[in-house]
Amino acid sequence: MDQTENNLKNPYPVKPLVIVFSYHHGNTEKIAKAIAGVLGADVKTPEQVCPEDLREYDLIGFGSGIYSATFGPPILSLSDRLSYAAGKKAFLFSTYGAPDCIANREFIEKNHYEMREKLHLKGYAVIGEFGCAGWNTNSFLKYFGGLNKGRPNAEDLRNAEAFAREMMEKARE
Ligand SMILES: Cc1cc2nc3c(=O)[nH]c(=O)nc-3n(C[C@H](O)[C@H](O)[C@H](O)COP(=O)(O)O)c2cc1C
């Protein structure tokens, strides 16, 4: 659904944006595109975002691969430069390289902690968080073909789309 269709169908149009930092294998970018497809949102990198421009959006997704148990430096630094948002709705999403047996909800939320805190400080209301596995060939893992090969997979993308629908519903509340 594109933005025009989204707005025509809905009495309370929501203008969404998805911002993603994804450098290892483009894993998180795949999730960003799946989410943006449902929302009818543009996808931008942190470098493409001017903090003042975010004023025009009602719902902003911030996504990153997980590097050393947190979001990547460019998106963390973008959050430091944001203007005060007075309750604007945001959501977080990430892909991690840990095996699924370790990566429960608590693990995902811990990885999001720093970014969530920064957004709270800037007055954002974080209304949802999504995480899934991503192919990881960091360090010695490259000698063994890496962990989570093939992830995110079709099921991960479907889950991301379902999450995006949930975020759109919550944004309209
Ligand atoms: C330098 C580096 C550090 C990483 N640190 C972690 C980590 O702390 N925890 C984790 O679960 N995965 C870690 N990973 C794996 C990535 O989170 C995973 O591969 C992710 O899907 C990468 O997303 P991207 O392709 O969008 O960059 C790391 C990967 C790299 C390259």
Annotation keywords:
alpha/beta; 173 residues; Rossmann fold; binds flavin mononucleotide
Topology (SSEs and partners):
Blueprint (H helix, E strand, L loop, with lengths): L2 H7 L6 E6 L5 H13 L2 E3 L14 E7 L7 H9 L7 E8 L8 H17 L3 E9 L20 H19 L1
Parallel strand pairs: 1-2, 1-3, 3-4, 4-5
Bound molecules: flavin mononucleotide (FMN).
Produce a short descriptive summary.
The protein has 173 residues and is of the alpha/beta class. It has helices spanning 3-9, 27-39, 73-81, 105-121, 154-172; strands spanning 16-21, 42-44, 59-65, 89-96, 125-133.
| Tally of strands | 5
Q: State the strand order across the main sheet.
A: 2-1-3-4-5
Oligomer: single chain
In this entry the ligands are: flavin mononucleotide
Beta-strand content: 15-25%
How do the helices and strands follow one another from N- to C-terminus? HEHEEHEHEH
Provide mean pLDDT, rounded.
93
What's the total helix number? 5
User: What's the story with the biggest beta sheet?
Assistant: 5 strands, parallel
Overall shape: it is globular
Number of domains: 1
Helix proportion range: 25-40%
Corresponding CATH superfamily: Flavodoxin domain
What CATH calls the topology is Rossmann fold
Low-confidence regions: none
What is the CATH architecture term?
A: 3-Layer(aba) Sandwich
Structural class: alpha/beta
